[in-house]
Design brief:
With 241 residues, the protein is α/β, with parallel strands linked by helices. Strand 2, helix 2 and strand 3 form a beta-alpha-beta unit. It starts with a strand and ends in an 8-residue tail after the last strand. The structure holds 2-phosphoglycolic acid. 2-phosphoglycolic acid (PGA) binds next to loops.
């Protein structure tokens, strides 16, 4: 793991965006793994700026980490809607090249297998963008997720339901289940870029970087990944030795 501590989330996001746009120059058909939540928003803003300045996303393929079960793609709180609003609709990316699991599929095991197959058919993920939950989750791989897990239906923890209530009007509206790429799926990405911002991530970041590799901290699995860069602001890095 390479750990880069920046003064601010803005600076860290700019560096992460440059890493992606540099890769895009050498690999126009880049395969990106993408995340939702507050953390990647500044990165996405930088990618949109890069596109406006000429970066070409027309051949890029994307695969999102997760989606809530039960929310149709057009639901205002679905991750598909989030991605369209905060990134895809502002890039010259082809909508058919963007993939978010369908949380309303009838046959979830078949959907999950097809998602894994689509990633493989694209040649695997070149760069996987990750946030981290306050409980150490990556994607919706909650503590206890096997480190070799694959795309599957997961049950969200109380902590995650609490954390994500801010995106909904009431706690009861947060779906209790989601489809998530597994930790094993994430570890197959050629490069992982983990972003961690703010004091409420400091404990999870310490466990991920300095703790043992353990399902208790799913992000700690990145310690055994061959090419992971962690971009932190000072607040998220505050508990590191
Ligand atoms: P956040 O979520 O970016 O909204 O803090 C991160 C995550 O849960 O992975």
């Amino acid at each position: 793991m390479e750990v880069i501590v920046c003064k601010t989330a803005e600076e860290a996001s700019r560096l992460a965006a440059t890493l992606i746009t540099d890769a895009l120059q050498t690999t126009p058909a880049l395969v990106l793994g993408l995340a939702t939540g507050s953390t990647p928003l500044l990165l996405y803003r930088e990618l949109i700026k890069a596109c406006q300045s000429g970066a070409d996303f027309s051949r890029v393929r994307t695969f999102n980490l997760d989606e809530y079960c039960g929310l149709p793609p057009e639901h205002p709180h679905s991750y598909r809607t989030f991605m369209n609003a905060h990134l895809f609709s502002n890039l010259n990316i082809r909508p058919e090249n963007t993939h978010v699991p369908d949380g309303t599929a009838d046959n979830l095991p078949a959907l999950c297998a097809a998602y894994e197959a689509a990633i493989a058919a694209a040649g695997g993920i070149d760069i996987q963008v990750l946030g981290i939950g306050s409980n150490g989750h990556i994607g919706f791989n909650e503590p206890g997720s096997p480190l070799d897990s694959r795309t599957r239906r997961v049950t969200l923890t109380e902590q995650t339901l609490r954390d994500n209530t801010r995106f909904f009007s009431a706690r009861e509206e947060v779906p209790r289940y989601a489809i998530s790429m597994g930790v094993g799926t994430i570890l197959e990405a050629k490069k992982c870029v983990l972003l961690g911002f703010g004091a409420n991530k400091a404990r999870a970041i310490k466990a991920a970087i300095e703790g043992p590799v353990s399902p208790d901290s799913p992000a700690s699995a990145l310690q055994v990944h061959r090419d992971t860069v962690v971009f932190l602001d000072e607040a998220a890095a505050a508990k590191l030795q």
